[in-house]
UniProtKB/TrEMBL annotation:
One of its GO terms (biological process) is proteolysis. Residues 1-18 form the signal peptide. It comes from Flavobacterium restrictum. This enzyme catalyzes the hydrolysis of the N-terminal peptide bond of an N-acetylated peptide to generate an N-acetylated amino acid and a peptide with a free N-terminus. It preferentially cleaves off Ac-Ala, Ac-Met and Ac-Ser. Also, involved in the degradation of oxidized and glycated proteins. One of its GO terms (molecular function) is serine-type endopeptidase activity. Keywords: Acetylation, Hydrolase, Protease, Serine protease, Signal. This is Acyl-peptide hydrolase. Residues 451-657 form the Peptidase S9 prolyl oligopeptidase catalytic domain. The keyword Ligase does not apply.
């Protein structure tokens, strides 16, 4: 028997090599293969989870989302819808017999609510809204009614020539929505059996996010009812009886933002998230978990001492505590907060990121989670242990090799310790200095986490080490770390990026002669700031950025930020000029830079990229400008997403892969 061991070893290693050799590195077209899971909801009996699965048809160049469900034991997965049009916002009827969803299928001009028997069969259209856009809905606890949120829209069915857009608002433009007129969103009560609809709220204010009380008698919702809602970011929780002509009651009075309200199981309290800041403009902030009586009064702040952003609050079954997601230094974990004293217990750990939370009838929880080498899947969370339910990503992963991801901490020039992530290409030679791309996250109030990131994995697949820097302004490191860049853009963030660059060079990871930098949105803005501050980067890609800040007042959607963070230009123009240094000092830039932007971007309009491109052309610095037709701030067209990845690689390869 002993004589057989060498042969068995050779057979085993040969099989392992054959299996590994069938895998390949990522390529831009793989963006068509990656599926996105979202919006999971548990059936009332706890046996099933409904969710949306988004896939791409590369031939039609179209992304489509369908409704699926998976059994709680994870053994059975069923696709419920398969129409050419997308379905979204799945939910269960309270008796568990039907799955409802929103769609504009069958050629409808606007979205309507549909229902289908969970056991199969064709979906039936439930609502037939003639005017307005359906934004949200929620079943009443007894299943006889729905609370609808409908945004007012003018009747244009008989209008042949568009009318002029008349603007009279302080905040008058927004990405995707375009120019903002006065079209408020209101609450309506829809009777499922008779299809009769009663108006709950009227007037010039918006009402959103309806949540039914457990006994079905009341609805909690959000509204900003200040004198001019455009001039602040307030939102308060209000409660109204679930009947026509009922009066509403204000529950919270914080001048900042109150959101994400959740009724306690006994209906006596409401949990919610409150902004730390009470200012008109809330950018550098983190949400605090609170509980208040359903009658209002002074709230109890459960997570204030945690100094980390909290999201997705959900009551435990017995109502004595709340589960929520906590954003913390490169991770997002699940924690439990005692209602009595705010005592916090960390439920999950590890280098991963949780993104959803819902209570199961048993008292366990449903969650969604991603890891550096695993795109998002849905899991059961039982006793702090995750159990995978869906397996949609297996077909994507079985064909490819992925970069390894590790964390590191660097020290900036002023002594600040900064947390970052390093992507090492699969099978990278040990000890070899690699061409390195710093791909910078947007926001700025967000963070790079131990979660799956296709763009950075794509760079690594092309042979690059990739660095993700959680510069000051990012969340996950406390409020002070986040707020310190307010009104001082392109200063400390650049110090942090350069400090991370020094670290990977000193550690022998990065080839100092082959450094690149890029990013989108605030990541594009920081790309501009960085190449105007340091000439070490040999190539750059600035996506949806802006460098001439002094030209953007009234051009983009950030009027509140300008007025409240750096002041009005006629009062503080020197500040605008100082923040515009990448454009005004463009003659000092040596880095060949690619500029990209969506044609219809109102968030960071195309003019920001166009101005820098023109400056580079005038100065003779190698550059190119790519404008994606019909795209907003986020590029959603699948072929454009693939094109962007391809152009990234061609541009960086041209300057960083030369021998």
């Amino acid at each position: 028997m002993k004589s057989m061991l060498p042969l068995l070893f050779l057979l085993f290693t040969g099989l392992t090599f054959a299996q590994n050799s069938t895998k390949r590195t990522l390529k831009p077209s793989d963006i068509y293969r990656l599926q996105n899971l979202s919006d999971p909801h548990i059936s009332p009996d706890g046996n099933w989870v409904a969710y949306t699965l988004s896939t791409v048809d590369s031939i039609k160049n179209k992304r489509n989302s369908d409704i699926w469900m998976v059994s709680w034991d994870g053994k059975e997965s069923i696709q419920l819808t398969n129409s050419p049009e997308s379905e979204s916002q799945p939910n269960w009827s309270p008796d568990g017999k039907y799955v409802s969803f929103v769609s504009s299928r069958n050629g409808l001009k606007g979205s309507q609510i549909w229902i289908m028997d969970r056991r199969g069969g064709e979906a039936k259209q439930l609502t037939d809204l003639k005017k307005g856009d359906l934004n949200d809905y929620e079943w009443s606890p007894d299943g006889t009614k729905m609370a609808l949120v409908i945004k007012t829209q003018p009747d244009t069915a008989k209008v042949k020539v568009p009318k002029p857009i008349v603007i009279d608002r302080y905040h008058f433009k927004q990405d995707i929505e375009g120019y903002l007129t006065r079209k408020p969103s209101h609450l309506y009560l829809y009777d499922v059996a008779t299809k009769k609809m009663d108006t709950l709220t009227k007037g010039s204010y918006d009402e959103t996010d309806p949540k039914w009380s457990p006994d079905g008698s009341q609805i909690a919702f959000l509204s900003n009812r200040t004198t001019d809602p455009d001039r602040n970011e307030n939102s308060d929780i209000w409660v109204i009886d679930a009947k026509a002509k009922a009066s509403m009651k204000q529950i919270t009075t914080w001048t900042g933002s109150d959101t994400a309200q959740q009724w306690s199981p006994d209906g006596k309290q409401i949990a919610y998230l409150r902004s730390t800041a009470s200012d008109n403009y809330i950018m550098y902030d983190q949400s605090v978990l609170c509980v208040v009586s359903k009658e209002g009064g002074e709230p109890k702040l459960l997570s204030k001492s945690l100094d980390r952003p909290v999201s997705n609050p959900r009551w435990t079954k017995n109502g004595t505590s709340l589960m929520a997601l906590v954003t913390d230094d490169r991770t997002r974990y699940v924690a439990e907060f005692a209602v009595s004293d705010g005592k916090t217990t960390k439920i999950t750990s590890g280098n991963r990121s949780f993104t959803a939370l819902e209570r199961h009838p048993s008292g366990s929880f449903l969650t969604a989670m991603s890891e550096p080498q695993m795109p998002t899947e849905i899991y059961a969370l039982e006793g702090g242990i995750t159990r995978r339910l869906t397996k949609h990503q297996d077909s994507f992963l079985e064909k490819i090799t992925l970069a390894t991801v590790e964390g590191f901490t660097s020290k900036s020039k002023d002594g600040m310790l900064v947390s970052s992530l390093l992507y090492r290409p699969a099978n990278a030679p040990v000890g070899k200095k690699l061409p390195t791309i710093f791909f910078i996250h947007g926001g700025p109030v967000s963070q790079d986490e131990f979660s799956f990131d296709l763009t950075r994995q794509m760079f690594a697949a092309a042979g690059y080490a990739v660095v993700a820097v959680n510069y000051r302004g990012s969340n996950g490191r406390g409020l002070a770390y986040c707020k310190v860049i307010s009104g001082d853009w392109g200063n400390k963030e650049v110090l942090d990026i350069l400090g991370a660059a020094d670290y990977v060079i000193q550690k022998g990871i990065a080839n100092p002669d082959k450094l690149g930098i890029g990013g989108w949105s605030y990541g594009g803005i920081l790309t501009d700031y960085t190449i105007a501050s340091d000439t070490r980067f040999k190539a750059a890609s600035s996506g949806a950025g802006v460098a001439l800040v002094s030209s953007m007042y009234g051009v983009d959607q950030y009027i509140l930020q300008y007025d409240n963070e750096i002041g009005q230009p006629w009062k503080n123009f020197d500040k605008y000029v100082a923040l515009s240094y990448p454009f005004l000092k463009a003659y000092k830039i040596k880095t060949p830079t690619q500029f990209m932007v969506g044609e219809s971007d109102y968030n960071v309009p195309a003019v920001g990229s166009e101005q820098m491109y023109q400056a580079f052309k005038s100065l003779g610095i190698p550059t190119e400008l790519i404008i994606y037709p019909g795209q907003f701030h986020g590029i959603t067209n699948p072929s454009f997403q693939k094109d962007r990845l391809e152009r990234y690689l061609v541009w960086f390869n041209t300057y960083l892969m030369k021998k």
